């Protein structure tokens, strides 16, 4: 019996879609660690969720397994790991006044609209607006600085507003360019900082 006879969604099972799904699993573990007030492990899990997000696209291209299902699956996982999780961090770990909550709502709406637009039109050779994994890296780093080093909460508020605006901006970024390598180095440096702090 073919697997899709048991469930029609199984016809979409391939390597890149499984990697995307592992990204979701890392996001769920990040949520669990946040419930335990373990910011370090939550960030480490989100780092690996970001790695899965990078790998699924590369492998889908390499294996010629791009699909509409994979694109939508990636968008849904990105919304959870890159948009919802940083907001969860703030609600769980920082004092939230009206302006802070407004910045989180703005970030969430911008992330949602950016992902919906990406799901509709794709990227081609360039991204329009700052991709949500990069956005997540920036705001998560700022939250870490507020929690661990006592940086002012208003800094996180400004960054959520600024990064939200960048996500829906018209800036063009090459799909595989120097900026991604720099963000990769930033992510690795941040991971080392988190592990050894």
Known CATH architecture = Up-down Bundle
Strand content: under 5%
Largest sheet: 2 strands, antiparallel
* CATH level 4 superfamily: CDP-alcohol phosphotransferase transmembrane (TM) domain
Sequence of strands across the biggest β-sheet = 1-2
Number of strands: 2
Q: Kindly report the CATH topology.
A: Four Helix Bundle (Hemerythrin (Met), subunit A)
Order of helices and strands: HHHHHEHHEH
How many distinct helices?
8
Radius of gyration using CA atoms only: 17 Å
Shape estimate? globular
Q: Give unreliable regions as ranges.
A: none
Overall helicity: over 70%
What is the CATH class? Mainly Alpha
Helix/strand structural class: mainly alpha
Quickly count the domains.
Answer: 1
Mean pLDDT: 90
Terminal Cα span: 52 Å
Detailed description of the structure:
With 197 residues, the chain is mainly α. The protein has a single domain (3-196), classed as Four Helix Bundle (Hemerythrin (Met), subunit A). It is built from 8 helices and 2 strands; from the N terminus they run αααααβααβα. It has helices at residues 3-6, 15-35, 39-62, 68-93, 98-121, 132-149, 153-167, 178-196, and strands spanning 126-128, 172-174. The chain has a two-stranded antiparallel sheet. Helix 3 packs antiparallel against helix 4 (68-93). It is globular. The model has no long low-confidence stretch (mean pLDDT 90).
